[in-house]
């Protein structure tokens, strides 16, 4: 399969390792990965903060760039949620019938990584090896917008050597919430504390998720408190093999 | 001299201005077309329905006395004795033949509110009972079943339905009457989320379930 | 016209209020405990209700249908209520509602009234209006009584005094009820309330209530409660005044079969609450012989006019969204500055004001979506929050705030990959003054809120796209070598 990668603006800039892992993983599974350089951002930050007008052109760019993709892979459930939940409405609001049709046409080809692996490529065992104690945090968008349910866990359970431990209050928001983290920093910090307590109680070495946004926030706290616990995106765990450790 | 618009006109005007594209001629049909895929009829056998009803009553500490049509008076006597009651108030329509000898009773209509407040207990029938939620629905008899500390309700087996929609259907003919749905004694959890029973209203609820 | 939502117009921003409340140890413990208890109970009774999703769908559809024909259903209710001996008044705003209610009380020569829990009366500031006219209102809902006697403000829709513990309640009761002694077990406190209020129920001849549902076809009113004080206030007085928002109307008696299954499970985690009272107009020789309904607008018709957010008016005030909200869990209700707190408060309060006040509330959310999941009438609260943020940005932001400048700049950057890459390079270079020992310890301005509690890695030297570029280059080289 020819898979077009939408890396997302923040992964591109802050978490290139996640992107590399996605490429390595998909190539290992025998697929061809493309990366259109024109891509920048899906517009979520602007849209969610109230700058919907500024997000509109970003929708057009995304649709234009990926319109001919066989399949689009996005290692960020919140960006997929933005596209799935809001792009159709935004297109409607524009009144541009071509845009509406283009969005309708493209959306079924857009996948979050775990969705792509399990639902589209039909694989739950990606041949990964990751000998560490790991706990999984379910990001809000993955749960409530994408309804990923236990897809990521199914993928993790098949990783050889992994010691997977359940996270208490797995579905409770970590407190990132995009600009919420700085606009309501105190409450965000309080919510983070609750999440950290659950992570620490698992005695895991690693906390993983399908969103680096949550992980950046969680790791920010884990490191500030010198817990020694790391955060690693699901893609990096799945890309890890005996030959290539993706820590 | 400009006419002052009443609030009524203002509010209706605003609503109509907003809904001006709505087709009002299809309103009744639109209402009928609302999808109601929730359960609206019984799914359990009668025995299971009655069992559920009794279970629910027990869950909120109501005492249930099962009896039959010939033994109602005796059962009521048993309940009153268990509550150390020598007298009781009964709802207007309550069948006199069910009142046991040896206890004094009065009708609600011959008591004042103050008297109701000091009376030992009250008895009435109900209109329908809903098993799924353990609910008894009364028509009228509002003060009677509110002020005394003990309340005994006589429920007939045939009045027990399984679901809330069935209950509402049975009540449809009394839709404009004063109805009270009772599902256990009054309660509050306002203090530290500790559930306390019997704030106002009867603290003790008894049900005489009359089997067919 | 003055819209009022309690004292929300004067309340500090959510962020400011939250900062202070996060330090209230007692409050935080109580809020955690209360929300845990109710969410657990709710999960059980919802889990056993196999047609829960179908009930939600029906409820949402009924509410949307009613809103589309709101004028019809209000008029139908009015006619039926009047035919049954009731009186119907309309109030465009809070002041008008207060005027009508105070006048009615005075007409009946009342100096005191007993009140059943009604948030609507808090919204319009009824108690203040009463006091200003020499009428003393007695709250009879246990929690509302605790709040009133303690000169406090409610912090939750269903359990308004959850921020108080038993010792605090005991002190309030002893003082207000003039008790020399009082145990501190919840039973003792509830008994004290029962005794104190019984006398008032029997004596005071005017009752004021809200309404959970107004039934258009019968002209009836339905009040849902647990304690029995509702039944007391609805049956014992001579005069009953019910104040209700216009969105409380539902088409028919039959529709209660849906709402009476959704509300108790959502609000208190019970299959059915202890008492529901239904009455229609005036009943001969039974209950109040003078019955008045005050239909309240106070900003609701404006919410109705916004197609993106009128679903806000579906709300049946169950409080489930508060109990599940991870933000509410940390701060409790006072942070929202309004009688309507939590997720529903964040969208309802500012909209009643047409976004003139409470503009910080739509941002008091991480958009996690837990509220939408539990809402029995399917209000897509996150969607409405985003919509209201848009309204704040477009309608209320005066001049160029730092945030707006930053956001517009970033939007410009995202419009071209070349600009984006330039910005990435700029970030990689420009970050060094902020980096110490390999970590970003401190960021300027509002971004400082991040580094205040979190460490931050600096931007990696190579972005993903640059890695990809290099990979392409080296594989192209390899190909040309092998060619």
Largest interface: B-C, 69 and 91 residues
Instruction: Give helix % range of chain B.
Output: 25-40%
Could you spell the SSE succession of chain B in H and E letters?
A: HHHEHEEHEEEEEHEEEE
- Distance N to C terminus of chain B: 72 Å
CATH architecture of the largest domain in chain A: Up-down Bundle
- Can you tell me the CATH superfamily of chain B? NagB/RpiA/CoA transferase-like
Could you please say which CATH topology of chain B applies here? Rossmann fold
Biggest sheet of chain B: strands side by side, in what order? 1-12-7-4-2-3
How many beta-strand elements of chain A? 8
Number of helices of chain B: 6
- The CATH C-level class name of the largest domain in chain A: Mainly Alpha
| Total number of strands of chain B | 12
Number of domains of chain B: 1
Which band does the percent of strand residues of chain A land in?
A: 5-15%
Which overall shape of chain A is indicated by the principal axes computed on the Cα atoms? globular
CATH architecture of chain B: 3-Layer(aba) Sandwich
Instruction: Enumerate the spans of chain B where pLDDT stays under 50 for 5 or more consecutive residues.
Output: none
What is the overall pLDDT average of chain A?
A: 97
Tell me what you see in this structure.
The complex is a heterotrimer of chains A (247), B (212) and C (483). With 247 residues, chain A is α/β, with parallel strands linked by helices. Chain A has two domains: 2-120, Glutathione S-transferase Yfyf (Class Pi), Chain A, domain 2, CATH 1.20.1050; 133-239, Rossmann fold (3-Layer(aba) Sandwich), CATH 3.40.50. Chain A is built from 13 helices and eight strands. Chain A has helices at residues 9-14, 16-28, 44-49, 52-66, 77-94, 97-106, 113-120, 140-145, 151-157, 180-183, 185-201, 212-224, 234-239; strands at residues 2-5, 32-34, 71-74, 110-112, 133-136, 163-165, 206-209, 230-233. In chain A, helix 12 links the parallel strand 7 (206-209) and strand 8 (230-233). The mean pLDDT of chain A is 97. Chain B has a single domain (46-211), classed as Rossmann fold (3-Layer(aba) Sandwich), CATH 3.40.50.10420. Chain B contains six helices and twelve strands. The longest helix of chain B has 14 residues, at 46-59. Chain B has a six-stranded parallel sheet, sandwiched between helices. In chain B, strands 8-5-6-9 form a four-stranded mixed sheet, sandwiched between helices. A two-stranded antiparallel sheet of chain B has the order 10-11. Chain B has 212 residues and is of the alpha/beta class. The radius of gyration of chain B is 22 Å and the shape is globular. Chain B starts with 6 loop residues before the first helix and ends with a strand. The mean pLDDT of chain B is 92. Chain C is α/β, with parallel strands linked by helices. Chain C has two domains: 8-302, 3-Layer(aba) Sandwich (Rossmann fold); 419-482, no CATH class. Chain C is built from 22 helices and twelve strands. Chain C has helices at residues 14-21, 25-47, 52-68, 70-83, 94-107, 119-124, 126-132, 142-149, 166-177, 186-203, 229-235, 256-267, 300-304, 320-324, 328-331, 342-352, 370-374, 381-396, 402-414, 417-430, 448-453, 464-482, and strands spanning 87-91, 112-115, 136-139, 206-209, 213-215, 220-225, 239-245, 249-250, 275-280, 290-296, 435-436, 439-440. In chain C, strands 1-10-7-4-2-3 form a six-stranded parallel sheet, sandwiched between helices. A four-stranded mixed sheet of chain C has the order 8-5-6-9. A two-stranded antiparallel sheet of chain C has the order 11-12. The longest helix of chain C is centred in the N-terminal third of the chain and has 23 residues, at 25-47. The interface between B and C is large, with 69 and 91 residues. Strand 9 of chain B pairs antiparallel with strand 9 of chain C.
